[in-house]
Amino acid sequence: MKDNHRSRTNALHAVVALLPIVAGTLAPALVSAQTASTRISAGTGIQREKVVIPIAEGKWTGPRTSDGQPDIAGHWSNPIANQNNWTDPQGGVPGDPARPNGPAGKREDRAPSRVSDPPDGQVPFQPWARAKQQEFLAYFHNPVRPEYIEPFARCAPGGVPKSFVWHGYEVRQYPGYIVFLFNSGTRIIHLDGKPHLPASIKLWNADSRGHWEGNTLVVDVTNNNAKARFGRTGEFASENVHITERYVFSPDGKRYNYVATIEDPTVYTRPWTATIPARKYTERDETDGWHYEVYPANHDGNEPIDEAYERICVENNGGFGNVAVTTSNAH
Amino acid sequence: MRTILLLAAFLAASAVDSAALAAAPGTKIPRLPSGKPDFSGIWQTTSAADFDLEPHSARKDAQPGPGIVEGDVIPYLPAALERKKKNFDSRLTADPRVKCWTLGTPRGVYYPEPFQILQRDRDLTLVFQFGNSVRTIHTNGTRHPIETDNEFWLGDSRGRWDGDTLVVDVTDFNDETWLDRAGNFHSTKLHVVERWTFLDPDTLEYAATLEDPDVFSRPWKINVILNRHREKNFQLIEDYCYTLDYDQYYPEPTTNAAEPEATDRAAAVRPASP
User: Virtual CA dihedral for A135, A92, A16, A72, nearest 10 degrees?
Assistant: First the structure.
């Protein structure tokens, strides 16, 4: 175990992980933890959209990198919600003591489940696995045992696929590699044709081998250590999980949809599909403390350059629950 | 005219010690399409630098090594030397490495685990296997942030090209990291100037000058060789070392989950693995 408060800076992960932000303005605690945050604008929330805009697979007509890949480098974030709830993304964490009556309004007024198949929007768990997920969720706000504390709250990487619903992230692109610099964890996708790691090696971010099909980055994901839950609602896979990701980029390069087929016969009754949209952020966007956490670079040019600082999580070692009851609600 | 050019070249070459070692003229080194040297690849030192930057004989927890400090001795201020000695005495538990904290700069470069450089014209991304931490060296003409109290684990790195040598100015450090396993340390005022130079396509010379007015009496230099990993299909294997302390609590849920044995890596002395 590490000490609390390792650093006076870069404690963002711990702070943000514990803020029950769902919508509305950013909590003061978050803003004060930022440096050079002068461009943070009020009124920007995590939840900016309620629908997933379909993007068809097809040819790529946009700009390309020097080695011929569709150029997708830059900053991205999902506009729907954080990882509070996998299947009702804008519904908050069930059992949140701060919201005893659950989310306001009707289910159809919120964004759809991230489970786009089966049609009912639910992960097709085997009965024992459903019980495990429900058990984790039941203790989420009252983690009486260490295993009920989300490893993510202790700085573990978000893993696949949760990293796509946790803060904005940066994509850097190279001949042979695409690198995701997530807010919590770093993932290197190999485009170099080399084989997967030996099956005995299990990793938080799994092992990723990708190739391009037109506007779609196709990534085969194995070697997942399956320790990261998909969200605070506790959905999970086992080490046997095999994920096939299709990142479908829009012709203007401003959006992509993450469409992942998730197979795991030890946990699910059938393969299922997760869909998570993302939109690109550039210097034309306002920075904020969640989607676009960048700072203006110090340089002589006239064009603004935004840059992200190092992302190093500071150990918190606290359960979500014991902070959720002491932090004022943002909604 | 030719004589003048040759003289200029000679003077330029002798201006820097390391130039004597630098890739011989005509040696092909990897280059980006822009013509700049391309350091992309997976690198690792075979030196014993991380055990102790200074010359040292064998210890239970360290292989012997000739040291990588120019002049052999780190020029500590008196009070700082006392602290260094305390660090040394408690190194088996106090070294941030055994807590799996981010190694910092320059330690990550000569730590005995591989790191990968991914390079574009605008920046170099260094991914260290230990902790899977990421350091960006900006090479787009930007300067250090105007605010100087950021206190980064890896510092703020701004690079420029001096011929085929990448010169990196690193500031804005926190004081949580050590320089090696022997308790050598620094304050938030650490300032590192690195020089990265190809010796041949598979070998880099890494030289750095360290200064810190709160800890050292004068700037001092280190110099280490980095070798390219050329094993078939070699790649980084993410090492989120700090998660191992709580790994035992997260078996993947199964119908009959068995409790895996707890591992206490923090207490283990890790051998070098070059």
Answer: 100
